């Protein structure tokens, strides 16, 4: 089952930006994430619209933080990237007339709504600075790769 990793990837990028001296280009970010620079620009534009990053055009330009990491929460970034579903599971709508499927779906919706509310409340209480403070400046990324933080 495919997971939506946009939140994790953008948190990764933003923490790097908080430790990077100067702007980071879309190409730099794309290379870091093994992604397409167009996708990076599209995602970063949502962060810019919310005032979390800014962009500078031209030579020496790129993306930089508009606010310090301590002012950015997981909830802020989650909302800025379009509020992707926090669950990979959900109700089925194969037989909408079946009372059993209706009961199952109603129960799942209630449980998922409660769980999502709790998760988003927790997101609101965790800053990117909290995450950034949890590791040393040079971290082993795995498989022999190094992630210079």
Automatic annotation (TrEMBL):
InterPro entries: Tscrpt_reg_Rrf2, WH-like_DNA-bd_sf, WH_DNA-bd_sf. This is BadM/Rrf2 family transcriptional regulator. It comes from Neorhizobium alkalisoli. PANTHER family: HTH-TYPE TRANSCRIPTIONAL REGULATOR YWGB-RELATED (PTHR33221:SF15), WINGED HELIX-TURN-HELIX TRANSCRIPTIONAL REGULATOR, RRF2 FAMILY (PTHR33221). PROSITE patterns: HTH_RRF2_2. It comes from the Bacteria. The lineage of its organism: Bacteria, Pseudomonadati, Pseudomonadota, Alphaproteobacteria, Hyphomicrobiales. One of its GO terms (cellular component) is cytosol. One of its GO terms (molecular function) is DNA-binding transcription factor activity.
């Amino acid at each position: 089952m495919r997971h939506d990793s946009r939140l994790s990837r953008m948190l990764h990028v933003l923490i790097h930006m908080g430790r990077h001296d100067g702007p980071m280009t879309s190409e730099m970010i794309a290379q870091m994430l093994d992604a397409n620079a167009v996708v990076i620009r599209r995602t970063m534009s949502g962060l810019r619209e919310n005032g979390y990053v800014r962009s500078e055009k031209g030579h020496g330009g790129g993306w930089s933080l508009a606010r310090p990491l301590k002012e950015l929460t997981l909830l802020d970034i989650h909302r800025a990237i379009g509020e992707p579903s926090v669950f990979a599971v959900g109700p089925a709508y194969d037989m909408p007339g079946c009372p059993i499927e209706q009961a199952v779906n109603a129960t799942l919706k209630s449980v998922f709504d409660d769980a999502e509310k709790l998760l988003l409340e927790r997101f609101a209480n965790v800053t990117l600075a909290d995450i950034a403070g949890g590791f040393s400046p040079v971290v082993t990324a795995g498989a022999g790769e190094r992630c210079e933080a």
